[in-house]
């Protein structure tokens, strides 16, 4: 149950009430909000005097549910919201100043405003490139200063969460890290927008519940990113779950981002899948592009060259128009 | 290996050669074609004198492969081919003359030329509606006569394959029947175009190999229909594998059809997924529509009302234009 | 709902009643049984005067449910039933008299009473060995005469169902054929025991519902065979679903058979998985064994040599004893 | 490639060499070991003078591979190794002193030496019980002191990894945390045995590669725990992948543990699945038992009562004997 407390209730009281009933609490800018398990179907007696409004929910998808808040949430600092589709582009891994600068210049010319690049790589093998770490974060920050790009970069585990929050404009939580409560909590308590990737073995229910960890700490700017799930099919690296995207659009109030590059894992299919996601009117598209994909230190098979990226980018505009979206 | 025999080789000789090496044989209108297992990497000695041309293949995706024939195949009688997207619409099950006539009239007004409707329903339970059978086929044939619509209907098992071939303009092989060699062989030996649905537990490799059963009997008009695969996600009925569609477009020479209705299983997501498939430039879209979906005898949750269908249909045109396709 | 009619009700009347309410009907040896959709929760008025007893069911798992009949069904002619585990062994494909005779002699010495061998192979590629067909059935029948073995062989599609029913002692319905209503119905109307394999993309619910097609035609001798499902894991060919076996044991009244050979697809794991299934107290084990596995025309990687089979067979006895089962 | 350096090489030199070629390094008690990517197929020139021995590997399963070290690794402090099967039992969550003490007393009487209990619960919902945290670790430590039990407890994210390493005898890395490099590295640098759970969406390849993160930091005591993977089947919570267990036994040198409770998610199937795993001769079994399962704060549906546990425990001995294992 989501409970709105009366405006007169003060912080200490709100915290005390939440704590007494074992619920989460946050201040949403206007009022104190308490969230209990969805199994609670009646207002706890203890709170009776303080409740302004309450919402009984079916499952633990609560703050993200259209039943709680029917209008779609946006990301203010990025201009993301209904009717807009943001392009987020850049290399899989930050590799060097030169590499990043080439990409950044290119994106600026293309009108792209969000630069992505990984510094802490969640590689499955200990014997491959693990990312530039903090050095990479600093290179990204230089691009922001030089070009005014907004920076999207991934946190892999909680040991560097503070660094990522400090350097990024959007904190990306990777597919393998999305169950990590320390990361989710830290993001919930920060004021940075969060791009939450769905784990490849994660149900839609669990995915949105991970977003609830962030929302219920007071950070309302969470984007849900579909990036392919693991199925029996192995001709492609993963299976992009656009059926799931339809579900998320219909049932949740959170912006939805699609990452076709990681889903298919092969360059050839990225343009078609990107246009497919565009035609669904999603709020953002995450695309990997690299000056020399064949020399990339990670994900060489799936990154687009800058020329391929630009060709795709151009082709998105008429599709956007066809479905009433504006590319930003 | 795909082997083209010299034009001088006669039918009896071609058959004899194929039989001796345990391979399949067919006449493609111009020449005799023999197909061996893809494990055969050199022309069998026995055939040496008769071979015009040969194609060594990596896997048993052979006649359907771009490596054998790079240009896309089309379906002549339906006008299906590159640059065109055919709309195939109608109710899940044929239920009555009135139901079918209402839909048919509506489709004619909308400019749709292909009417679908199931007569033999592959229901999972023996205790639910199993379809009108032959009576349904005759109702469909009446619609063809009355309105000039082309009829697409499904064969469920080999006991009624002859009836379906006789009545339909396009024989649909259902997801649960696609491994049935008797059906595949009968379709391969007929001259009716075939719409082959992917099984929900079927890999892309197996899917195309089922098409090879048809192609290698001499019928070159096979469409591959993606209709959702079974994954761990159960908020949606199936997961529409558009990543797989990208693979099929890239690697095979067969037209690709998408069926979003069965994939998601819920009306709400059908329009978005249909537009997504449209944006990928597929050759056809299969849509369930029913005059009164809530009263449908099967798939009540996913069929669009005629009004919903028409609204979706209208919205497809700008998307088609955006990606250079023409809706037929 | 499962309805037992009063003993006084005659065949014609029972059929008439079933037909009027659109339900299935069969005679179970003692009484007429009518089965409606499980959505029917009250006895239809029309039947009120004729009902002896009725069972309201939750899902369309009805005749197979422990809620209908709590004691486990057995297979009389084979001695299969609670406390017994039957070994069913033989080559993947029947290849020749010599091959089959070698295996048959070996099995007789080992005390195995059930010989399996495929004649109609549901291969995924049209360019590989498709089985000996009718000739194979006759070879199997010779083994029955010569050695007194019971014959288990697979039907692949409905074109040869009559032949298989005529020749086999147990009709095996393959994983790819298990949705085929013509096959299910023909088996339901025969008096031969049926070994029904689970499709690799088939849910437990659908699997048992396929058995209901057979049971509701009057054949009560159906065995459920788990043979591996398709998952994201591809180091092994399939994933043997013993969790599903636990479900089937607990919720249904049908004997359960396990086929570890097809599940893993590699010889090395067959013994361990067979012992695992044995320890669960299943009613049967299906094992592939071939005199020269490396020369087998199908499934060469997973068949055990006769020596490997015998070593495994011996090792099963102490496990059987440990869990109170007797190997037959 | 795994490289053994000559005994004469000193620590600083070994580290320098590893660093120069971007490889991992550790001392295995006798010699320095360097591991490069498996793509390296020839000894790097720089190392030529220092190499004693080297092992070219097919994939990044290297230290865990039977091709590197054919004999099975054991866990000295626990007596775990070939021929032994350790029982690890206890409640899902540590809830109170009383609860834990009841279980501990019971286990001691049953001869069980390893007590498990979760303190940091990786719940999918923020609105449910999240565990007792550090307080729970201290309760577990009290049980060790009082009863001499060894303590197995789970780390959920890297924020409390130091606490878990300090308190536990075996550090369990949960299914949702197994890609977390900070945790894997911390465990690799500790001297505590590690029980690594497979993620429910994790391939066998990735699973063993996670173990490589630990092994390549110098900790050789890693157990692989199969606990069910996510498949399309939803009648059971997960699908226990015993086919995967067969693969791990055959291809790796690490002890394998099976957790049937989490796999099926329902009490009824736990005994059968446990006996199945026992019959495969695994090195350990992880079982959830609770004094009052129906009142448990987590996993209420799957935990065994103490009586059910003991009945199961007794039934394991004859199965163990049948396959030549000794229960410890």
Automatic annotation (TrEMBL), chains A, B, C, D:
DAHP synthetase I/KDSA domain: residues covered: 80-316
Q: Which GO terms describe its molecular function?
A: aldehyde-lyase activity; transferase activity
**Which Gene3D superfamilies did the record assign?**
Aldolase class I (3.20.20.70)
Question: Which keywords annotate this record?
Answer: Transferase
Q: Which GO terms describe its biological process?
A: aromatic amino acid family biosynthetic process
Keyword Transferase found: yes
* UniProt-recorded name of the protein: 3-deoxy-D-arabinoheptulosonate-7-phosphate synthase
């Amino acid at each position: 149950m989501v409970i709105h407390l009366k405006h007169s209730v003060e912080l200490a009281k709100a915290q005390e009430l939440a704590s007494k009933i074992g619920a989460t609490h946050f201040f949403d800018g206007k009022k104190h909000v308490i969230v209990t398990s969805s199994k609670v179907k009646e207002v706890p007696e203890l709170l009776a005097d303080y409740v302004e409004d309450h919402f009984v929910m079916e499952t633990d998808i609560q703050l993200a549910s259209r039943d709680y808040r029917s209008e779609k949430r946006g990301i203010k600092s990025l201009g993301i919201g209904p009717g807009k589709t943001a392009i987020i582009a850049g290399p899989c891994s930050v590799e060097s100043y030169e590499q990043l600068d080439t990409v950044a210049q290119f994106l600026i010319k293309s009108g792209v405003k969000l630069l992505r690049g990984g510094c802490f790589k969640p590689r499955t093998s200990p014997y491959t490139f693990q990312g530039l770490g903090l050095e990479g974060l600093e290179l990204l920050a230089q691009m922001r200063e030089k070009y005014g790009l907004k920076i999207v970069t991934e946190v892999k585990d909680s040991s560097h969460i503070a660094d990522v929050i400090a350097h990024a404009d959007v904190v990306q939580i990777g597919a393998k890290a999305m169950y990590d409560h320390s990361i989710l909590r830290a993001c919930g308590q920060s004021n940075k927008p969060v791009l939450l990737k769905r784990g490849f073995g994660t149900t839609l229910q669990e995915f949105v519940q991970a977003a609830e960890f962030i929302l219920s700490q007071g950070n309302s700017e969470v984007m849900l990113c579909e990036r392919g799930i693991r199925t029996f099919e192995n001709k492609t690296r993963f299976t992009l779950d656009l059926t799931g995207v339809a579900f998320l659009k219909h049932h949740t109030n959170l912006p939805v981002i699609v990452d076709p590059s990681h889903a298919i894992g092969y360059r050839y299919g990225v343009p078609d899948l990107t246009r497919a996601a565009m035609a669904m009117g999603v709020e953002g598209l995450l695309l990997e592009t690299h000056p020399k994909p064949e020399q990339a230190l990670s994900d060489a098979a799936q990154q687009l060259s800058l020329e391929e990226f630009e060709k795709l980018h151009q082709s998105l505009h008429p599709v956007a128009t066809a479905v009433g979206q504006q590319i930003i």
